[in-house]
Amino acid sequence: MNTIFSIEDERIVYDLVREYLKKKSLSSLDEILDFISHRLKSKKDFNRNKILQVLRSLIKQHLLMPGSKLVKEDILTVPKRVEILDYITAMPGTNMKEIMEYNEIGSNHAVWHLTYLEKFGFIRSVKYGTQKAYFKVDFDEKYDEIFFYLRNSKVKKIIRLLKEQSSQNPTEISNQLNIHYNTVKKYLHILQKFNLLIEIDEEYKKEYLLNQDMFNVVQNVIDHLK
After folding, report:
1. In b/e form, how buried is each residue of 43-64, taking b as 16+ CB within 10 angstroms?
2. Inter-residue contact 173 to 186 (CB < 8 Å)
3. Please, what is the average pLDDT of the chain?
4. Distance from C-alpha of 99 to C-alpha of 114, rounded to nearest angstrom
5. Do the Cβ atoms of 13 and 58 come closer than 8 Å?
6. Hey, what CATH class is 152-225 in?
7. Strand pairing partners for 205?
8. What whole-number distance in Å separates Cα of residue 15 and Cα of residue 151?
9. CA separation (Å) from 84 to 20, 98, 109, 177, 190?
């Protein structure tokens, strides 16, 4: 049964959770329920069920994380974690390797920081094949896959070539960029899927142009991130 509670009720419970976490981690809801129930025993409008509902709400809002002694406001007190969040904000679709290289940290530290940022609702991750792409939590999801592939070095080369030259067929692109033909075809198909390319039939050969209108839309998203 759901219990109605106010923002002020959440604040009261949250403050008591912070007090509790100075000594112990949030490993057991029963234990923290006992602690908060005892502290609020004089308040008749706080029963055990209401406190439990408030705790679940705080967890759902990513203000608390089971198993941790931290709360959301603690997360960005670590300078390196702020740097990582700033990097992900500026570079949506980035991956673990890029985060490690840019922030000059090892894999264990990267996983540690990313886990806290994701668990507390600052970022989110999406898996594409064997790679995870990271985004700020409020980044528009409809652009996730586009930005993931736009960070690929081969895709960048293909786009740069099509921006500089007229329409090209896959063989021409492969030869000029020294990228395997099948790889070129794969990425052309992906770019076409996102309407970033215009396909032209030229004497039994398909050629491709950059769809400048759609590319401008993506560029506008990039500019708003700066």
Report:
1. eeebeeebbbbbbebbeeebbb
2. no
3. 90
4. 10
5. yes
6. mainly alpha
7. 202
8. 42
9. 29, 10, 11, 32, 28
Protein fold of 79-140: Arc Repressor Mutant, subunit A (1.10.10)
* Token representation of residue 16: 């008591």
The structural domains of the chain, with segments of one domain joined by +, span: 7-69, 79-140, 152-225
Per the DSSP assignment, residues forming a β-bridge with 206 are 201
What SS3 class is residue 4? coil
Distance CA 159, CA 151 (A): 11
Fold agreement between 79-140 and 152-225:
yes
In this predicted model, what pLDDT tens digit does every residue of 116-143 receive, in sequence order? 999 999 999 999 989 999 999 999 999 9
Overall pTM surpassing 0.90 (yes/no): no
Q: Residue holding tokens 């400048």?
A: 212
